Amino acid sequence: MSPAGDIAADFRDVDGADPGRLAGFLLALGADPDFAAVKRRTLEALALRPGDRALDVGCGMGVEVRAMARGVGRGGAATGVDVSATMIARAREGAPAGCRFLEADLHRLPLPDGAFDAVRAERVLQHVEDPGRALAEMVRVAAPGARIVVAEPDWDTFTADLGPPEVMRLITARRGAAIRNPAVGREAHRLLTGLGCRDVHPEPVAVRVHDPALIEPAYELRAEAARAEADGALGPGAARTWERDLDRRLGEPGGLLTILVMVVTTARR
Ligand SMILES: C[S@@+](CC[C@H](N)C(=O)[O-])C[C@H]1O[C@@H](n2cnc3c(N)ncnc32)[C@H](O)[C@@H]1O
Fold first, then answer.
1. What is the number of structural domains in the chain?
2. In angstroms, what is the span from residue 107 Cα to ligand 1's centroid?
3. Which domain holds residue 119?
4. What is the pTM of this model?
């Protein structure tokens, strides 16, 4: 398991971390109004039709695969792929007919060329070893003309209304740096274009999180301050002040606003 509180490292290897905690986090995040709006936007952009074959890579517990299955109807099929055995087992629990789940690494999809009419990824490319390779696999399994939709954050946009600006910038920059591919949200446009996709369109969507119950699990502002103090980037006084202000603001209704831009990139194979 990764050092306590490193959710970015945990999502690279869910089965080696605490899958129950990560599953709870995914559900809480999916219930957040702004993250839910990003999910809806990706599903709209897939423009699913009855009979389509749809794929979600890095599907987690398969919530969107179920939505995709409703979109493609009885004549179609929705497939979810995830590298985590635990996530796939949870996704399979009570899944309706028309949903199929595969445990596989998205760098090497065990799926034939051109097999899908719609291919989706959300908040997974930020964690993988090689996002270019992963996108190439998504393009390979898409049929000519298929819709491809990718929703990933641009961590350079992450801000929080907390603390002196220089401390806030230090903490939020470190949070981004803890992510394997913090810029993939803005890179997906170039990578998909380079892979020969057509009609590639990046749409930035700002996500506001001010629910105290979600801010810490999602962004780990306290853990980041502790890590900054441990490696000397932040003095003990500044770290303590940050933690105290964080506690106070999390306890006030509407006390803390965070903003992160997600980029929803749509394309055609
Ligand atoms: C942050 S979760 C997002 C899950 C889902 N897309 C959602 O929006 O709720 C990232 C998921 O990607 C999966 N993942 C990470 N690396 C992967 C890889 N190389 N291949 C397939 N899935 C991967 C993790 O197991 C985890 O379920």
1. 1
2. 12
3. 7-155+180-206+262-268
4. 0.94
